[in-house]
Amino acid sequence: MNAHSAIADIRVRHALHSDAEESRRIDTFVAAHPGAQLFHRPQWSLAVERGCDQRGHLLLAEDREGRIAGLLPLTAVRSPLFGSALVSSGFGVGGGILAQDASVETLLADAASTFAAELGCASIELRGGPVPTGFDPQEGLYAGFERALPAGDEAILKAIPRKQRAEVRRAQGNGMTVTVGRGAEDRRAHFRSYAESVRNLGTPVFPPALFAAMVDAFGEDADILTIWKDGRPVASVLSFYFRGTVFPYWGGGTREARALRANELLYFELMRHAAARGCTRFDFGRSKLGTGAYSYKKNWGFEPSPLTYAVRTLAGGVPRTVNPLDPRYRLQIALWRKLPLWLANRVGPAIARGLG
Fold it and tell me: 127: helix, coil or strand?
């Protein structure tokens, strides 16, 4: 079969992530595809929609027999402050086109462009996967951090560079306790720690409904690990598990965490917990080059890997600018850091839900 007839045999349609059978088929395709990421799972799009009220869409490429040949999960992110975009994957650090060959990639990219125009979105953002024709590569802004996770406490400690290992040892002597769970108390502790952390960084916090929706959607493939001191949560992280890799995704600590070195204990305990679950890799997520988070992950012995994203701006559209390092946001960030936490937690989710 030549390339032209192969393309003619493929159709692209909209799938429903809320349909259990559809989601099962897509999840099976994602599990089998070597380039798949956590953010391709339909559970991600569904949780984003439920938690942030930003509509999720799944573009599905199928052959004449109904077999899946490609997938593009998209979130239509809209904000009166930041504009609109069709994002893959919304609120994720990865995603993009997942297909069996280049011809299907082209079909999905073209379908996404048509769909973005229909929705009135100014641009399309692909956070991973191939860079299709007509899209501009976005490089030099983010790096990912991932490495092997050994089994056993001593092996995990030895894999941590000496200075950072000493910080973990100090944290272990500060009388903190650890819990792992998915219940109401775990969720409250996580939001309390994470919200204070991002406020201190000058960033609005995501809606607590997003975190709850993620835990509900992923079930056993997600949990919350929290560090406590005298009954108070001081650091917490919501993590995901996919293909033997743990992804600490939304994590942070209170002001008290710094002196206690609670974040050091947090990630060491997560490594132990993930290894006990059978994970063999630790994905520390992405960070912007030149930031404190970038340096912090290198201190743990992770080497940065450059990430390439892709953007297509539609005719007459203006691409979003949501990078907090943009000098235009310097004043807003400085002011946000000074907000009382209760006020930041009330106002922040309405803003953050439009960041995507």
Answer: coil
Q: Is 318 exposed, middle or buried (0-12, 13-18, 19+ CB in 10 A)?
A: exposed
Q: Are 7 and 1 in contact (CB under 8 A)?
A: no
Q: What is the pLDDT of residue 323?
A: 67
**Pick from 53, 44, 122: which is nearest to 88 by CA?**
44
pLDDT, position 9: 87
Let me know: does 148 contact 280? Beta carbons within 8 Å: yes
Q: Is 236 left (phi over 0), alpha (psi -120 to 50) or beta?
A: beta
| Helix 341-352 × helix 184-201 angle, to 10° | 90
Task: Report domain 146-306+339-352's class.
Answer: alpha beta
Domain 3-139+308-320 belongs in CATH node 3.40.630.30: yes
- Condensed to tens digits (0 to 9), the pLDDT of residues 307-349 reads 999 999 998 777 777 766 666 767 888 898 999 999 999 999 9
SS3 of 40, please? helix
Question: Strand 123-126 vs strand 83-88: parallel, antiparallel, or unpaired?
Answer: parallel
Query: 243-272 pLDDT, tens per residue?
Result: 999 999 999 999 999 999 999 999 999 999
Q: Where are the domains of the chain?
A: 3-139+308-320, 146-306+339-352
Question: Given this chain, do its domains 3-139+308-320 and 146-306+339-352 carry the same CATH topology?
Answer: yes
Q: Letter for the amino acid at 285?
A: G
pTM summary value: 0.94
